[in-house]
Amino acid sequence: MQITKIRPVNEKKVFIETDEKEGFCLYLGEVKKLGILCGMELSAEDYRHIREEILVKRAKKRALYLLNFGRKTEDQLKRKLIQDRYPKDVAREAVEYAKSFGYLDDAAFARDYIELNKDRKSKREMALALFQKGLSKEEIRQAMEEVYDQEDHVNAIRRILHQKGYDPREKDEKKRQKIIGYLARKGFSWREVQRQMELTEEETGSEW
Q: Which residues does the UniProt record annotate as the domain RecX third three-helical (predicted)?
Protein backbone atom coordinates (compact mmCIF):
# COMPACT_ATOMS: atom_id res chain seq x y z
CA MET A 1 0.00 0.00 0.00
CA GLN A 2 1.46 3.35 -1.03
CA ILE A 3 0.96 6.72 0.63
CA THR A 4 -0.18 8.87 -2.28
CA LYS A 5 -0.90 12.18 -0.58
CA ILE A 6 -0.56 13.92 2.77
CA ARG A 7 -2.54 17.12 3.16
CA PRO A 8 -3.06 19.34 6.20
CA VAL A 9 -6.42 19.40 7.98
CA ASN A 10 -5.42 21.97 10.58
CA GLU A 11 -2.31 22.97 12.50
CA LYS A 12 -2.19 19.64 14.33
CA LYS A 13 -3.63 17.07 11.91
CA VAL A 14 -3.06 15.76 8.40
CA PHE A 15 -5.19 13.58 6.14
CA ILE A 16 -3.34 10.64 4.61
CA GLU A 17 -4.46 9.10 1.32
CA THR A 18 -3.36 5.71 0.00
CA ASP A 19 -3.79 3.81 -3.25
CA GLU A 20 -5.70 0.94 -1.59
CA LYS A 21 -7.53 1.97 1.59
CA GLU A 22 -9.73 4.88 2.62
CA GLY A 23 -7.87 7.92 3.82
CA PHE A 24 -7.44 8.65 7.51
CA CYS A 25 -6.33 11.43 9.85
CA LEU A 26 -3.30 11.41 12.12
CA TYR A 27 -1.72 14.00 14.35
CA LEU A 28 1.58 15.44 13.16
CA GLY A 29 3.35 13.87 16.13
CA GLU A 30 2.03 10.44 15.13
CA VAL A 31 3.12 10.93 11.53
CA LYS A 32 6.61 11.83 12.68
CA LYS A 33 6.78 8.93 15.15
CA LEU A 34 5.63 6.43 12.52
CA GLY A 35 7.96 7.89 9.91
CA ILE A 36 5.18 8.33 7.36
CA LEU A 37 6.18 10.11 4.15
CA CYS A 38 4.38 10.74 0.88
CA GLY A 39 5.28 8.06 -1.67
CA MET A 40 6.40 5.47 0.88
CA GLU A 41 5.06 1.93 1.07
CA LEU A 42 2.91 1.20 4.12
CA SER A 43 2.94 -2.48 5.07
CA ALA A 44 -0.22 -4.36 5.99
CA GLU A 45 1.14 -4.77 9.51
CA ASP A 46 1.79 -1.03 9.87
CA TYR A 47 -1.68 -0.20 8.58
CA ARG A 48 -3.23 -2.71 10.98
CA HIS A 49 -1.38 -1.04 13.85
CA ILE A 50 -2.58 2.42 12.79
CA ARG A 51 -6.14 1.20 12.39
CA GLU A 52 -6.44 -0.83 15.59
CA GLU A 53 -4.23 1.10 17.99
CA ILE A 54 -4.98 4.65 16.84
CA LEU A 55 -8.03 5.06 14.61
CA VAL A 56 -10.44 2.59 16.22
CA LYS A 57 -9.59 3.63 19.77
CA ARG A 58 -9.92 7.30 18.87
CA ALA A 59 -13.20 6.74 17.02
CA LYS A 60 -14.70 4.91 20.01
CA LYS A 61 -13.83 7.80 22.31
CA ARG A 62 -15.18 10.27 19.78
CA ALA A 63 -18.45 8.33 19.49
CA LEU A 64 -19.05 8.39 23.24
CA TYR A 65 -18.15 12.07 23.35
CA LEU A 66 -20.67 12.91 20.61
CA LEU A 67 -23.42 11.05 22.45
CA ASN A 68 -22.96 13.39 25.41
CA PHE A 69 -24.64 16.09 23.32
CA GLY A 70 -27.89 14.22 22.74
CA ARG A 71 -29.37 10.98 21.50
CA LYS A 72 -28.58 9.80 18.01
CA THR A 73 -29.50 6.95 15.74
CA GLU A 74 -26.81 4.52 14.63
CA ASP A 75 -26.79 6.11 11.19
CA GLN A 76 -26.50 9.65 12.55
CA LEU A 77 -23.51 8.69 14.68
CA LYS A 78 -21.84 6.81 11.83
CA ARG A 79 -22.30 9.74 9.45
CA LYS A 80 -20.85 12.14 12.01
CA LEU A 81 -17.77 9.96 12.46
CA ILE A 82 -17.29 9.71 8.70
CA GLN A 83 -17.68 13.48 8.52
CA ASP A 84 -14.86 13.64 11.07
CA ARG A 85 -12.74 11.75 8.50
CA TYR A 86 -12.76 8.29 10.06
CA PRO A 87 -12.80 5.44 7.51
CA LYS A 88 -16.26 3.88 7.10
CA ASP A 89 -15.25 0.52 8.59
CA VAL A 90 -13.73 2.27 11.61
CA ALA A 91 -16.88 4.36 12.05
CA ARG A 92 -19.04 1.21 11.95
CA GLU A 93 -16.88 -0.45 14.59
CA ALA A 94 -17.15 2.59 16.85
CA VAL A 95 -20.94 2.59 16.45
CA GLU A 96 -21.11 -1.09 17.42
CA TYR A 97 -18.95 -0.30 20.45
CA ALA A 98 -21.35 2.43 21.61
CA LYS A 99 -24.30 0.16 20.89
CA SER A 100 -22.83 -2.61 23.06
CA PHE A 101 -23.14 -0.34 26.10
CA GLY A 102 -26.77 0.47 25.33
CA TYR A 103 -26.02 4.03 24.25
CA LEU A 104 -27.70 3.45 20.88
CA ASP A 105 -31.15 1.95 20.42
CA ASP A 106 -32.87 2.87 17.17
CA ALA A 107 -36.16 1.22 18.12
CA ALA A 108 -36.38 3.17 21.37
CA PHE A 109 -35.29 6.35 19.58
CA ALA A 110 -38.15 5.96 17.09
CA ARG A 111 -40.75 5.24 19.77
CA ASP A 112 -39.66 8.21 21.87
CA TYR A 113 -39.61 10.53 18.86
CA ILE A 114 -43.16 9.53 17.91
CA GLU A 115 -44.41 9.83 21.49
CA LEU A 116 -42.92 13.31 21.75
CA ASN A 117 -44.26 14.57 18.41
CA LYS A 118 -47.52 12.70 17.79
CA ASP A 119 -49.69 15.56 19.06
CA ARG A 120 -48.29 18.07 16.58
CA LYS A 121 -47.01 16.14 13.55
CA SER A 122 -48.61 13.79 11.06
CA LYS A 123 -47.53 10.19 10.65
CA ARG A 124 -46.03 11.00 7.27
CA GLU A 125 -44.09 13.94 8.65
CA MET A 126 -42.66 11.87 11.51
CA ALA A 127 -41.88 8.93 9.23
CA LEU A 128 -39.93 11.19 6.88
CA ALA A 129 -37.98 12.73 9.77
CA LEU A 130 -37.08 9.29 11.14
CA PHE A 131 -36.12 8.03 7.68
CA GLN A 132 -33.78 10.99 7.29
CA LYS A 133 -32.20 10.05 10.62
CA GLY A 134 -31.32 6.67 9.15
CA LEU A 135 -34.11 4.38 10.34
CA SER A 136 -35.50 1.78 7.96
CA LYS A 137 -39.12 1.77 6.80
CA GLU A 138 -39.73 -1.41 8.78
CA GLU A 139 -38.31 0.09 11.98
CA ILE A 140 -40.50 3.16 11.52
CA ARG A 141 -43.60 1.06 10.81
CA GLN A 142 -43.01 -1.05 13.90
CA ALA A 143 -42.56 2.01 16.11
CA MET A 144 -45.72 3.58 14.70
CA GLU A 145 -47.71 0.45 15.51
CA GLU A 146 -46.38 0.34 19.06
CA VAL A 147 -47.01 4.00 19.89
CA TYR A 148 -49.61 5.48 17.60
CA ASP A 149 -53.38 5.04 17.50
CA GLN A 150 -56.23 6.82 15.71
CA GLU A 151 -57.05 8.95 18.74
CA ASP A 152 -53.53 10.40 18.66
CA HIS A 153 -53.99 11.26 14.98
CA VAL A 154 -57.26 13.07 15.68
CA ASN A 155 -55.78 14.91 18.66
CA ALA A 156 -52.88 16.13 16.52
CA ILE A 157 -55.25 17.59 13.92
CA ARG A 158 -57.38 19.27 16.57
CA ARG A 159 -54.36 20.68 18.35
CA ILE A 160 -53.08 22.26 15.13
CA LEU A 161 -56.55 23.62 14.31
CA HIS A 162 -56.50 25.33 17.68
CA GLN A 163 -52.95 26.62 17.19
CA LYS A 164 -53.91 28.06 13.81
CA GLY A 165 -56.84 29.88 15.38
CA TYR A 166 -59.52 27.87 13.60
CA ASP A 167 -62.96 29.08 14.67
CA PRO A 168 -65.97 27.41 13.00
CA ARG A 169 -68.03 30.50 13.81
CA GLU A 170 -65.97 32.55 11.37
CA LYS A 171 -67.24 32.54 7.78
CA ASP A 172 -63.85 33.00 6.17
CA GLU A 173 -63.56 30.32 3.48
CA LYS A 174 -60.12 31.55 2.43
CA LYS A 175 -58.75 31.07 5.95
CA ARG A 176 -60.40 27.66 6.16
CA GLN A 177 -58.76 26.49 2.93
CA LYS A 178 -55.42 27.88 4.06
CA ILE A 179 -55.58 25.81 7.26
CA ILE A 180 -56.60 22.69 5.31
CA GLY A 181 -53.68 23.23 2.94
CA TYR A 182 -51.26 23.63 5.84
CA LEU A 183 -52.38 20.36 7.44
CA ALA A 184 -52.31 18.54 4.11
CA ARG A 185 -48.72 19.65 3.52
CA LYS A 186 -47.81 18.27 6.93
CA GLY A 187 -49.10 14.89 5.79
CA PHE A 188 -52.58 14.74 7.29
CA SER A 189 -55.37 13.30 5.16
CA TRP A 190 -57.50 16.00 3.53
CA ARG A 191 -60.62 13.96 4.29
CA GLU A 192 -59.69 13.55 7.96
CA VAL A 193 -59.00 17.27 8.33
CA GLN A 194 -62.40 18.06 6.81
CA ARG A 195 -63.99 15.52 9.12
CA GLN A 196 -62.46 17.08 12.24
CA MET A 197 -63.50 20.54 11.10
CA GLU A 198 -67.06 19.29 10.65
CA LEU A 199 -67.06 17.70 14.10
CA THR A 200 -65.75 20.92 15.60
CA GLU A 201 -68.53 22.81 13.85
CA GLU A 202 -71.13 20.39 15.22
CA GLU A 203 -69.73 20.71 18.74
CA THR A 204 -69.98 24.50 18.59
CA GLY A 205 -73.33 24.45 16.82
CA SER A 206 -71.95 26.33 13.84
CA GLU A 207 -72.28 25.54 10.14
CA TRP A 208 -70.50 26.82 7.10
A: 152-195
